[in-house]
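[retry 2/3] Four-carbon acid sugar kinase family protein: previous attempt timed out, resubmitting with same input.
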Amino acid sequence: MSGISGDGPAYGFYGDDFTGATDTLAHLARAGLSTMLFFAPPDPARLSMLGRLDAVGIAGAARTMPPHEQQPELARVGAAFAALGVRVMHYKVCSTFDSAPQTGSIGVAIRTLRAYCANPLVAVVGGQPNLRRYCVFGELFAAAGADDHQQSIYRIDRHPTMSRHPVTPMNEADLRVHLQRQGLENVQSIDWRCYAIGDAALQTELAYRLESKPDAVLFDVLDDSHLRAIGRLIAGQATARSPLLAVGASSVAQAYACALNDAGERGEVNAAPASLARARGPVFVLAGSLSPLTEVQIAAAHSYLRVELDPLQMTGDAASDYLATRVAAIAGPLRDGRNVLAFTTRRAAHAEEAAHSALPQLAHACAALLKAVLSKVRLQRIGIAGGDTSSFAVRALDAWGLSYLSPLSAGVTVCRLHADRKELDGMEIMLKGGQMGDADLFEQLLNGYNTHT
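[retry 2/3] Four-carbon acid sugar kinase family protein: success.
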């Protein structure tokens, strides 16, 4: 069993955006594994300062990158994890697997990282039940809706949001075909019925699948018992001499943690609180996501002064002047103790298409806005909504890492920022993807959250 023994971290993960990376950080930390999430591969001095870690993460932005940028980014990550001696190398993707051959290609990621993993198995974990993401006979399904009682489950190519994603629309539900379109010609699969036959028989089934030397093996996931079986298989296959590449959402980390628990191996118990106290000062939320769920969350944020951000003006010829006015409109009320929610708007149907075409520039503009706001007012807690917005915004800050602080909602975590600059170090930060969180998420961020109530 490959657990947490050894000198270095046994588990390394790269998040293809920051929001997903913090979710994986949370699952590992709550499983009792000492975990730190870095913004770049850490140097030996930084690692020495932190002491022993069971798991190391790197938060990136590969989901927004074309292949010629993605490949060198992930080659650096693969080399760093190999140098640390990790046994499981996890490429963390969105639970909806949204990606495309020319943007955030999972195929490019697998081909690049596989060079640093000697194991013949590349495991693709297809679902995450706690987020209502399910993979059945290779096809992906996901929930939609702001309220648990109102959510419906859709095949991903018919999902009301993900099938219409402005950059990487999911128009294929069969993940084998989806990955084949990204250059993985031979994708084998193990369906959910195999988990009931026992670990030994599952190993035999896997050995049969590996005979064709596949580019990847896709594992169905319908419930947590499936994750336990997958976790035992992954942990049993991965060794120091033959590290294994795993691809999927935070369900990969959940499966790994289950395997450690089943084997009686755990890290030191993490002292992170299970609740979040009410904010001690004004809270700033930057919502760059255009998802319907984020719109619901904005509408429910009654305790905030709302500041609209026009995507077209933020990315137009006079963007610097426009951003200066928006920064002033945000920083002034924050200095006066008011909570502020700045959000990108959809002014009209004809403007939405143009706004979508400017999405990469919009994420950079949001990052510049956040950096400018924080240069004018010191805050104890902030929130950022939108996967791409989060990735670029946090990278723009002069900080080096995140540690787990508290859960807030399914798939949403509050972390502590680590920076060499005193005014940033220790700031509490929530990062959320467009599809994540309860309707009153921004109110929860302000008022705190207790898992026992």
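[retry 2/3] Four-carbon acid sugar kinase family protein: Confidence is low (pLDDT under 50) at residues 1-5, 267-272, 348-356.
[retry 2/3] clearing retry counter.
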